[in-house]
Amino acid sequence: MADNNKLSTVIDSYTFFEPDQVLTPDQLNSLTGYLDRQERLTRVKTRGTGIVTGLHVRAADDGTSVTVSKGSAITTDGDMLFLDADTAFTHFREYVDKNGQYEVFAKDGKQIPLYELAVTGTADEALPRFEKATGNTMVDMAVLLYMENFRLSQNICTGGDCDNKGQLEKHNLKVLLARKSDLAKLPAPAYFDTKDPVFERVLLDPSATDHYGDLLKAYREGIQAMTKALTGLLPETYSVCEGLLKGVYGDNPTKLWREKLKETADKAAGVTSGIQYVHDFFLDVMGAYEEFREALFRRAIIDWTKIIPFPKHVMAGSPVVEAELRHDPYRHGFYTPDTATLDSEGVAEVRFLHKRLDLMIKSFDLTPALSGRIRVMPRRDKSREAALRPVPSYYKDGGDETVNTYWDFGARMRGREPSIFSISSDTRGFGKDKLLGEPWDFRASHAPFYWIDGHMDKDVDEAEKQLNDIIAWSDLPFQVRTLQIENDITLLPLKPKRPVFTRDLKSLFTVQKNALKIHLDDLQDFNTALAGTITTAVKDSKLPARDPLDAKSSFELFTSKDTDRLGQKVTVLKEKLEVPIDDFDHEGFEKEFNETIGIAANLNKGVKGVTYNSTFTPYETVINSTAFKQLTLVKDILIKRKEKMKHLTLFGSFIKDHPGMTHQGGVPSGGTFVLVYSGATKKVVADFALPYRFEDDREEDEEETVGVVTKPKWTDLNDLNIHFNKDQYFEDKIAALDQNLKTKIDVLNENIRQKTIDLQEKINANTASIGKVYTDSMTALVNGVDTVIKAKETVTGAAKEKAASAFAKDDYAGAATVIEAAKDYRTAYEKKVDEGTATEEDKEMMDTLDKAAAKAITGTVKKIASRETDVEAGSEEAKFIEYARTSMGTIKDETLRKGITSEVARIVETSSTKTNLVNRLKTFG
Prior knowledge:
This protein is α+β, with helices and mostly antiparallel strands. The chain has 4 domains: 6-182, no CATH class; 206-309 and 339-456, no CATH class; 503-648 and 694-717, no CATH class; 726-921, no CATH class. It contains 25 helices and 24 strands. Helix 6 packs antiparallel against helix 7 and helix 19 (726-762) runs antiparallel to helix 20 (767-806). The longest helix has 40 residues, at 767-806. Mean pLDDT is 77; it is low at 426-437, 545-552, 697-701 and 777-794.
């Protein structure tokens, strides 16, 4: 077979031509051969070999064509193979390499079956006939680009001579189909000979994590699962790269790795402190394994010794791909000149990462991690990629080859190993006197993640304090909180480790207690002023009787109440309101308050018989106040929140509400770092993180304070009016009318006497005239007396008779008597006004009756509304409501009318269930 491999022949010299020199074939061929070889070496040694770009093949779905895209490739002999455009081949023909006699095509002394693809041909050569003609399908075939290279002799005679013109060097590009079974598969990149790590992460069941033993069990099971996975995966890291790694180790280290990992996993069964550190170590190894695999893929590391040279061809791949393949064993890749060397950067990185695995497994030690100080270190990324985070404290640091020196390949290449953050190292630093362990002195920008170490197995309060100090000193954007692992609130401190979120309750507490203090101030003012006012009134005997059958006055009932005791109670309540919400004695205050309103209620009963006012008394205001009810609600909410906060400080309860909480070895920027501790030992046993802040730390330390609200005293804004005895009042008025009548009669008698004298003097002059004058005067006198007497009877008798005829029940008849008296008297009063004879006394009497009528209407309607049952149609109650509505027109005082309307509206609001009552009351206008 012909040897057409140009680079197999070394040409290291050529002839230097002299003037007038006669050149021989060897001299000329040595020059062209040298130049050709240099060109080929330039391609192969400086650029690489294989497919540079394009040359993708694809058979049409209907089998009518095979398309090869434009692209280029370089053979191992330096030949450049290329297509300038996408080419669709529609025909085929059998190909025999009789000229090139390429040794790759030879098998058992014969050429393997080859088929040349063409763009034109006969009907019998159309691709749809390929399977029938060859017995092969496109699935069985691979496409090759072949540089057919041979020399062609030229025995050509011309008219002048028949000298031999020399041989013609031919280079013909052929696109061929060959059976895959006749070709040697290309070795896959080492990456594809390793496996993806598969293991289940630790998932904690909130309902089944009641104590530290549950957490230990979960992590131990996770460690065993990873041990099983790693002991199966790690041996492949050496076998697929043995040629690259022989110089790094004296022997295959993976056997020792497996033993060490199993030993560490077995020891984890007895670990009671730092179980998460052990689990983190296995995650580190798993992450380092994945980084190693990624480097194999990214650097396209392959076993170069298994790649057969391809001096005159490249394999372009399978024309029919049954599935998306991550690697086609019948398509050359592109291999750079350093692919087959051991001093390339790619090989150096693979060796570095493999050695890091070795050092990590050998140097794991839990002791320093449990005894070191607490450190917070920046991490450039949230992933577990080792180079992006500090070296954890559970790796021993010492000697020339440590995990620290093999942690970051980029730093190693740049000679910056001292700049690698190490949690356990206090000897490496940026400067001569600065420790690298405190990076916040050098970097102002915040990292996306913070690695936290050294807190495990420490007292939880001390660990929390130290972390909060670091956060404050270094201005770091995350918070710390603590959770108890045991589901037992009896182990919790009396005061929760985290403050109960009460900002809204504090504001509500402040508002309501100030409102209640205002009511209590009014109560105290009213209570003091009341006794003096009534004492004055009783001296004048103006107070009503307690009962019509009992002459004992309401004041005597009133004075039987302990006003001094009420004042003392109010003072105690006001003192109790001066404390903040967290120290407020809800139970004690409630007891005092209930006693206070009990006293106030009894006093108010007596006061109601003594006074009348346009507003509620402060007794009623305090009794009906919702401020204390609001304080009670605040108390109940606070108790519930404290109870909830206790449960939220339990790990199992908290994780139910925050399922995104996971162990990350630190905390994301803006997140919450959670220290999990044992309530029995108060030691930190685990840590977790949330990607967000937990809101309970936004609580202000002090309760908000407001200025003292000042307002005029109740007695400065309201009159304390004495509620006079109405029967006595009417009797006094009637007595006054009697006296007035008597006076007028006396005047008339005097006038009669005088007229009698005058008449006697004139009797002799005109007896008839005198008789007529006397008769007229007497008639006028009698008529005047009758009018006065009838007016009195109208007020005292007619009203009662009319009321009694309208209502059978005494309550309603009594109220109607007052209203009718007011109506009748107004008729008489308005007549006097028209006649111009009305006096101030008459006007005072009219105002008194109007007020009495208004009180009779509102008082009786309130009594009807207080009944348990609704008003029935046709009942006395229904009749009285209608009577009261129509009687409002009698009351001319607009203030009294508005007072009636306002009180009726209030009754409507509080009696929504009594439909008939509400509908009738709504007619008041």
